[in-house]
Amino acid sequence: MNAAAMTPPLSSRKAPLMKLSYLAIAALMLVSPTAATAAKYRVLHNFGRGTDSKEPFGALAWDVRGNLYGVTGAGGPDKPCTPYGCGTAFKLAPRSDGSWQESVLHDFRGDRDGAYPYGTMVFDSYGNLYGTLVGGPSSGAGVFKLSSGTKGWSNARIYTDGAGPGLMIDSLGNLYGEMGPGEQKGGAIGELSKGAGGWNYTALFSFDGTDGLTPEAPPIWDTKGDMLGTTLAGGIYGAPCWTYSGCGVVFKMTPDGNGTWTYRVLHTFASSKDDGQSPSGGLVMDKLGNVYGTTDLGGRYDNGTVFKLAETGGHWEMTQIYDFPNCKYGCLPSGNLIFDTAGNLYGVASGGLPDCGYTCGVVFKLTPQENGKWKYSVLHKFSGPDGALPGYGLAIDNQGNLFGVTSSGGKYNFGVAFEISTTPSPQ
Question: Are 32 and 24 within 8 A, CB to CB?
């Protein structure tokens, strides 16, 4: 089971990494790597008023009508998950005047209903939503399903032995991600498939620590039907890895054609002193089949990295396309990256303004250059009133506008949903 599933999802959940980051920040006041790119930022919703959703706890997901959906780790009625509620699933719908309306789809109530949803939700072809739960004192971790009907949305827990954060879905509606304890009790990549008698669970691979541990995001599909993903821990446990839990891996799972899967480690983080460490986000793939991701820590400056893995002749080569040198302009990246149609990469990180102690966060852009390098620029620095801690990645629309959430800051200090509209600027 994911270690995060043992604690409520309040803003202190990344305390171990944040403590380490302060040491790195104190040593770093280097030359600016970039100037900010022209972009327009606006808050779409302030979470936290009354029993409203509080503390977004995963990236946003689109439906086919252009609405956005997400979950919060707190909010809803105070009881039984006092003092902040058991969490919610919410919807953001665009209005004709350009504003957005937030509505709560479901208030989780603990016990059989589940508690503390986390990760990004996914849709099936019927419009049902699926997500994962941290669980609470009277409600275990697992998978939930939200179905829309004439009387609103109804919730059902379809798996209760640990899951998440987040899921991946295939064209048949089968669900994949970290689910179940695994054979060595280190977690597993599992599958949930719908059968005549309900949902059936299959463990596809069990982690033992040396081959990875604790995925913090679901895997992605490649064009061949393989799964690729990351783990936060496992792999290398000794120096130069900063933690006894291991610094994580990138893995690939290939179907064998008989219902089993072959698991392979493509890269073990902390393989060198300047390698990335502890990836808390998943992967994204470009048109050529290369995969990209972030590490919270590691790199030359120990402020995290953006990496690329490219396959040549069956061998996967790791390249750092950006090594964060200065928390003033972003550091400790987390969450998923996203591409626009021009091949630019976008992501989120800690760092930013000194008034926040370089922790409020930034949204950044990486632009590929003709020489194979990538140019880094900051689209927005969070200040607190406009949001803080944007740790879950971004969603993008067909015009290239970016959407995301923060878990803190805003009018009520329980996070915001935001939009960034970018405009062309000199490169």
Answer: no
- 120-131, pLDDT tens digit by residue? 999 999 999 999
- With vertex at residue 68, the alpha carbon angle to CA 63 and CA 69, rounded to the nearest 5 degrees, is 95
DSSP string, 377-399: EEEEE--BTTBB--TTB-EE-TT
Our measurement of the distance from residue 224's CA atom to the centroid of its chain's CA atoms, rounded to an integer in Å, reads 24
Residue 181 φ/ψ, nearest 5 degrees: -75, -20
Categorize the per-residue pLDDT at 18 as very low, low, confident or very high, splitting at 50, 70 and 90. very low
Burial class (CB in 10 A: 0-12, 13-18, 19+), 243: middle
Question: Which residue(s) pair with 261 in the sheet?
Answer: 255
Q: Which residue shows structure tokens 């309040």? A: 10
* Residue 189, amino acid: I
Token pair for residue 13? 């959940």
Predicted structure pTM score: 0.90
Centroid of chain to Cα 64: 21
* 286-334 pLDDT, tens digit each: 999 999 999 999 999 999 999 999 998 889 999 999 999 999 999 999 9
Q: How many CB atoms lie within 10 A of CB 403?
A: 20
Among candidates 131, 77, 78, which has minimal Cα distance to 104?
Answer: 77
Which pair of structure tokens corresponds to residue 202? 């299959």
The string of DSSP letters for 286-312 reads -TTS-EEEEESEETTTTS-EEEEEEEE
